[in-house]
């Protein structure tokens, strides 16, 4: 039996992961801001589901709830950092509070959760840390700048962290889905563009459902399979749209770098003025 710790378990991929893990007969320590939203699962699965109120932007609360979860379970095999939040609009138009809240939730909250989970995982001899990222950690869309900033930050932090904690038997998985049919986009804030941006790249309509090819249940199943395999991948690129877009972006980026090879090497030499 596997024991999971999952943040943001109230909806979307977090809720789906919780449901699928419980259906497998696993134990789940689920955290969310409104624990009553899992009343139906508590009634169905009883003691297999452990719930606590937790806001990932409250570092003291994260530390306390993590400690309670590890104390309540003999072992936690997989920690899933899933809580996330989006604000879409031209970067200039976002309010300072919106910028700060997205950063606090998507990157600072993830970093602080990992920093506090690693000592527990190390003491028990290992485990898996799953961090929800996005195709948006490799490419960008106008109107999503602050969201991309957090996902690119998550990618860098957890790639470096993975190397640090692997000697302790802790594996790290960055999950990079494409556009998945979840409630994430419905819950995201949208800021109307100001006059200078109207009709420009940032003035995009709400994302149409038909563009969301990813299956929520399919993504959750893939995460479970990856987390429990013998050698979990560092990056888990999911959904056909993400695969096509990210691989094409990386190829274009590599071609641009290759065209700059002579310039890059020339910068090794001291510049002598004309």
From TrEMBL:
<dbReference type="InterPro" id="IPR002347">
    <property type="entry name" value="SDR_fam"/>
</dbReference>
<protein>
    <submittedName>
        <fullName>SDR family oxidoreductase</fullName>
    </submittedName>
</protein>
<dbReference type="InterPro" id="IPR036291">
    <property type="entry name" value="NAD(P)-bd_dom_sf"/>
</dbReference>
<keyword id="KW-0560">Oxidoreductase</keyword>
<comment type="similarity">
    <text>Belongs to the short-chain dehydrogenases/reductases (SDR) family.</text>
</comment>
<dbReference type="Pfam" id="PF00106">
    <property type="entry name" value="adh_short"/>
</dbReference>
<dbReference type="InterPro" id="IPR051911">
    <property type="entry name" value="SDR_oxidoreductase"/>
</dbReference>
């Amino acid at each position: 039996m596997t024991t999971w710790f999952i943040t943001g378990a109230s909806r979307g991929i977090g809720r789906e992961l919780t449901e699928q893990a419980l259906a497998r007969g696993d134990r789940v320590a689920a955290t969310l801001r409104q624990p009553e939203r899992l009343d139906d699962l508590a009634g169905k699965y009883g003691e297999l589901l452990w719930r606590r109120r937790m806001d990932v932007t409250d570092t003291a609360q994260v530390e306390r709830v993590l400690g309670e979860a590890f104390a309540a379970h003999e072992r936690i095999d997989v920690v899933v950092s899933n809580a996330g939040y989006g604000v879409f609009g031209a970067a200039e138009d976002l309010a300072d509070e919106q910028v700060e809240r997205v950063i606090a939730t998507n990157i600072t909250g993830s970093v602080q959760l990992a920093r506090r989970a690693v000592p527990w995982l190390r003491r028990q001899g290992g485990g898996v840390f799953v961090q929800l990222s996005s195709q948006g950690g490799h490419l960008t869309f106008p109107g999503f700048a602050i969201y991309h900033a957090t996902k690119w930050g998550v990618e860098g932090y957890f790639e470096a962290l993975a190397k640090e904690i692997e000697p302790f038997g802790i594996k790290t998985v960055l999950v990079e889905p494409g556009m998945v049919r979840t409630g994430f986009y419905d819950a995201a804030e949208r800021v109307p563009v100001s006059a200078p941006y109207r009709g420009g790249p940032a003035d995009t309509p709400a994302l149409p459902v038909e563009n969301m090819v990813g299956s929520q249940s399919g993504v959750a199943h893939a995460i479970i399979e990856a987390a429990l395999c013998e050698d979990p991948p560092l990056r888990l690129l999911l959904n056909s749209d993400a695969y096509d877009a990210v691989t094409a972006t990386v190829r274009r980026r590599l071609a641009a770098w290759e065209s700059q090879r002579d310039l890059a090497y020339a910068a090794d030499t001291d510049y002598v003025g004309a």
